[in-house]
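Figure 3 (text version): structure tokens given as input.
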């Protein structure tokens, strides 16, 4: 995490959050690109930094950003840590990168956090699954006895594994009052695994369907920002920005009046 001068969250203020699977800065606009551009997941490409700069401009409007499918610095990203790159260009003073699948010089599959505010604690967890390589970040803001807790996730493709992973997430957050869980869930809110999560926690089912995938013709709502009942959702929207194979999802929330975060 970077160490630039800290900011503080005022008592009861509104903040804006964004979750985005950036597909290592590959801007897919057709289904066939999964085949024709598959080499970009291994080798660097000419538009890499142009697309990263566009992503940086997009996320610069948000207080806290959760990123999925980010590269931590390997051949395909010109050995640049994409989380750090985005933090610098979007002027987020605090950032954290979690590498979940490290293939050495070829790829470093990661989750990332960008933040205007200094977390009081960040804890990395490996998510359960037969195939390793999925993780979650638990980010706490504010005082230990009354924090805002953010969980950043990128869940597995298989339903059974997602059930285990969301059960793991539920155990981590169920004892906290103010919670946001955000990321690429690879499942819809009415799926069995998501219903299981809602039943075990105070997280609320979104009131509307927000279609995020695929970016060029959104048909599935698999990217989510979930909040506990103590947090008021002012607005939630999907941004029509074709910078990945997913569209980013954004939310504005009002913090509870008794929630003190930072100084």
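Below: residues designed for each position.
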């Amino acid at each position: 995490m970077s160490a630039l001068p800290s900011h503080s969250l005022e008592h009861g203020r509104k903040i804006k959050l964004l979750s985005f699977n950036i597909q290592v800065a590959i801007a897919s606009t057709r289904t066939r690109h999964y085949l024709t551009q598959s080499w970009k997941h291994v080798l660097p490409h000419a538009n890499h930094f142009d697309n990263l700069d566009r992503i940086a401009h997009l996320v610069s409007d948000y207080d806290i950003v959760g990123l999925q499918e980010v590269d931590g610095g390997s051949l395909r990203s010109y050995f640049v840590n994409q989380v750090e790159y985005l933090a610098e260009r979007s002027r987020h003073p605090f950032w954290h990168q979690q590498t979940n699948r490290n293939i050495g010089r070829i790829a470093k599959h990661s989750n990332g956090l960008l933040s205007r505010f200094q977390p009081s604690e960040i804890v990395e967890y490996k998510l359960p699954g037969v195939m390793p390589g999925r993780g979650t970040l638990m980010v706490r803001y504010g005082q230990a006895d009354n924090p805002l807790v953010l969980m950043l996730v990128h869940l597995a493709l298989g339903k059974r594994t997602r059930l285990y992973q969301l059960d793991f997430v539920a155990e981590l957050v169920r004892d906290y009052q103010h919670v946001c869980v955000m990321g690429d869930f690879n499942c819809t809110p009415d799926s069995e695994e998501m219903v299981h999560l809602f039943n075990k926690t105070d997280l609320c089912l979104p009131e509307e369907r927000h279609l995020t995938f695929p970016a060029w013709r959104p048909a599935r709502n698999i990217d989510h920002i979930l909040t506990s009942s103590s947090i008021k959702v002012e607005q939630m929207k999907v941004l029509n920005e074709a910078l990945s194979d997913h569209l980013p999802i954004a939310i504005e929330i009002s913090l509870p009046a008794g929630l003190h975060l930072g100084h």
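The CA atoms of residues 137 and 182 lie 10 Å apart.
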